[in-house]
Amino acid sequence: MLELAILGFLNEAPLHGYELRKRVAALTGHVRPIADGTLYPAIKRMEQAGLLCRDIQAGQRAAPRHVLSLTEAGRSELLRRLSSPDDLFISDENRWFTLLAFLRQLHEPAVQATVLRRRLVFLTEPASFFWDGDRPLREKDFPDDPFRQGLFRIATATSRTEIRWLRETLAALGG
Q1: Prediction pTM value
Q2: Among 7, 75, 126, 135, which one is least packed by beta carbons within 10 Å?
Q3: The CATH number of the domain where 53 resides is what?
């Protein structure tokens, strides 16, 4: 998630580390707080892999600022990750939201539609949080547990809303 967010934000504009950290935290901070001990090693790894480059610019009142930008290899890697996301980015809600935040950067409606269809297939397959052997349990299977009923009710409402949005967006994309 972190690397995808870094690639996505830097594809929008070159940023210095502090600004990048603020944007990543705004996107994923509710799930995983972004600490310097997480962000800067990831930036360094990505820089060593040739995905990012660093330019030093004079600071207005302080020390020079390090401005990060994507290399062509970084842009290619971003497009690869967006067009062919790992299964976990399709099934895990937090990873999916990170992917969705940058999916417009693909610029190819057919490829965007392919990714959205994968998510739609995932959401429309029978699923459950709880199982009894091979049978998925549903809300009605927990008549005395309002908390598990709530879990099912919230998940069902969220899935229905997302499925409706996916279908609308796929129709708009022509797919």
Answers
A1: 0.85
A2: 126
A3: 1.10.10.10
Q: How many residues does the chain have?
A: 175
| 120 shares a domain with 67 | no
- Give helix 36-48 / helix 2-12 axis angle, nearest 10°: 70
Which domain does 53 fall in, by range?
A: 1-84
Residue (of 12, 94, 2, 85) closest to 45 by Cα position: 2
Q: Is 73 found in the same domain as 145?
A: no
Instruction: Decide if 79 contacts 9 (C-beta within 8 A).
Output: no
- Predicted confidence pLDDT, tens digits, the chain (175 residues): 899 999 999 999 999 888 998 899 888 766 666 766 788 899 999 999 999 999 988 766 777 778 999 999 999 999 999 999 999 999 999 899 999 999 999 999 999 999 999 999 999 887 666 777 777 777 788 889 999 888 888 888 999 999 999 999 999 998 5
Q: Are residues 3 and 52 in the same domain?
A: yes
Task: Please measure the distance between the N-terminal and C-terminal CA atoms of the chain and give it in whole angstroms.
Answer: 27
- What does the alpha-carbon distance between residue 47 and residue 69 come to, in Å, rounded to a whole number? 10
Q: Which of 45, 68, 84 lies at the terminal end of a domain, its last residue?
A: 84
Maximum CA pair distance of the chain?
65
Answer whether residue 101 is part of any domain. Answer: no
